[in-house]
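User: I'm writing a tutorial on reading structure tokens. Could you give me a worked example: one chain, its sequence, then its tokens, then a sentence or two explaining what the tokens reveal?
Assistant: Sure. Here is the example chain.
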Amino acid sequence: MYTPLPRTMFPVRFALLLLAFAGALSGCQSAKGSTEKTSSPSAGGPAAGPALAISESEVVVGQLHSATGTMAISETGSIQAERLAIDQINESGGILHRKIKIVQEDGASDWPTFAEKAKKLLVQDHVTSVFGCWTSASRKAVLPVFEKENGLLYYPTFYEGLEQSKNVIYTGQEATQQILAGLDWLQKTKNAKTFFLIGSDYIWPRTSNKIARKHIENVLHGTVLGEEYYPLGHTQFGSLINKIKAQKPDAVYAIVVGGSNVSFYKQLKAAGVTAENQTLLTISVTEDELLGIGGENMVGFYAAMKYFQSLDNDNNKKFVEAFKAKYGAKSVIGDVTQAAYLGPWLWKAAVEKANSFEVDKVVEASPGIELKTAPEGYVKIHQNHHLWSRLRIGQAQTDGQYKVLYESDLIEPNPFPKGYQ
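And here are its predicted structure tokens:
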């Protein structure tokens, strides 16, 4: 039986009716000592609202990722990392003396399903926060639900930016931290002047390539020779590869997502397009996808991320060891997996700072929170709900890992960069 915590305000008349029955309910109220009450500015007193799933010993959170469908190859790592973090938090005593219970839902790589499951978690399960989504399409699908129901989402994926919501903490990178900095590296180190842009056909790749094109043409003074998009789950890339071979760009900029990556990179190699004759930079292939692709099919190509499993620091060594102990020695950890791991820890820090699970109080407490134990080294929540982080460039190896070649200073998040909207 969960003790209700208010999420939104009911009308004043309803609050007064509750007060009228206070004497009769006093025995029940004393049994619900963990209840928090929110004061309504307009009513000037306590107001009832939809329950949050909290008892004296337990607090309930939601998980909402694709456990099935074409995005499962990418999102399974996020599910695992969030569960590892929650297990570690529970083992260390929980959060405000409560253990965390997870209600997991499957978005099934389908955006309307994500919206349906988000509403179920907030309205029916009354979860205190949700760790979830991967694609921008899924995030955009659930965002109106979180804003209407005043829920709190921790979103782990690098994305196109151009968004800021009170109800979302973005633990991945936005465009200025990944796209712009990565293209700058590409031109400086590879003298790239001509580019071919590739993406899966939905909002993140299209918006990211729009930003990339503006940066290439207006800042780097380069040329985009081609720009192609393919549906999620697409597996036939022969015609695209022929276009790349014919155009001979200095660099291919690839944002192919999910299971399509396996077909794309295997077909590239089969067609003789390798790192020996073509520079390629991706912002969508982490170690999770590389495991399915096979290191031998992508060796020598580059990725722009904030995290790679091969990072050499004490935080990361402990994280990798714990992850492999839980999920097996052959398991791998990618950028989004690590960003997903940050979510429960950042939520814990904000809840303890606020001394409350109430969404508005947790949100208010979040800016300025630092996580010095992050596997990537260090993160801090900005006022705009994104994280300060570094860009790193990794080169794919035959063993399915990335060799880190470059690391930037901490980059301040700027989800609305001037000139790129």
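What the tokens reveal: The domain at 58-173+314-387 is CATH 3.40.50.2300 (Rossmann fold). The chain is about 40% helix and 20% strand.
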